[in-house]
Amino acid sequence: MEPIEICSKQCKSKCCKSTPPALTKSDFERINKLHENKNWFNNIDQGENKTIVIAKREDSNNCYFLSEEGLCAIYSSRPLDCKLFPLFFKINKINKSEYNLRWLVWYCPLTDAKSLDVLKEEAKTKIEIILSEDPDQLFEYQNAMYASQGYKKKHFLYEERLKIKKSGE
Ligand code: SF4
Ligand code: SF4
């Protein structure tokens, strides 16, 4: 089964019906350009940790962008939080080109369908691209995740720490 079928048919898009995705600045700007209706997001203010998350549907716990067929209506523009799921990470800058990453994997049916190594390699590739193009977005992602309620509640299946170099350095 392809990952998209696992998500929509087997799992029935559980992650899109739970904690609202937290947004980085560029996530917000990209999605906001697509929507004149401003009901699609909510602000979360927890002291220093301020962030914006995608709103829930008025009549359910579903993400604002989850269609009745269980598909994402903004798939190609979805937030980094959704692109990386079921992986999360914490990042610290060591110097100009090196970062310490702590991988955390949240259990979901995709972790059964693909091996953890495959998921990690996919996420590592995405992160290396962002590090070379827009490293600030990774720190924004981390801050957004800290500010989202769900991040604190999650239980993780797997954890690994590694050092990553910005490509081309
Ligand atoms: S990413 Fe995981 S939890 Fe989310 S819809 Fe797919 S299988 Fe379900
Ligand atoms: S933006 Fe798309 S992928 Fe992310 S939670 Fe909403 S429906 Fe799911």
Commentary on this structure:
The protein has one domain. Helix content is 37%, strand content 24%. The protein contains seven helices and six strands, in the order αβαββαββααααβ. The strands form two sheets. The chain has a three-stranded antiparallel beta sheet with strand order 1-3-2. The chain has a three-stranded antiparallel beta sheet with strand order 4-5-6. The mean pLDDT is 82. One iron/sulfur cluster binds next to loops.
Largest sheet: 3 strands, antiparallel
Give me the side-by-side strand order of the main sheet.
1-3-2
Helix/sheet category? alpha+beta
- Per DSSP E runs of 2 or more residues, the count of β-strands stands at 6
Tell the overall outline.
globular
List of distinct ligands in this structure: iron/sulfur cluster
Please report which band the strand proportion falls in: under 5%, 5-15%, 15-25%, 25-35%, 35-45% or over 45%. Answer: 15-25%
Q: Note the quaternary state here.
A: single chain
Q: How do the SSEs run, as a string of H and E?
A: HEHEEHEEHHHHE
Low-confidence segments, given as residue ranges, are none
The proportion of residues forming helix, as a percent range, comes to 25-40%
Summed over residues and divided by their number, the pLDDT gives a mean of 82
Radius of gyration: 16 Å
N-end to C-end Cα span: 38 Å
**Tally of domains:** 1
Q: Please, how many helices? A: 7
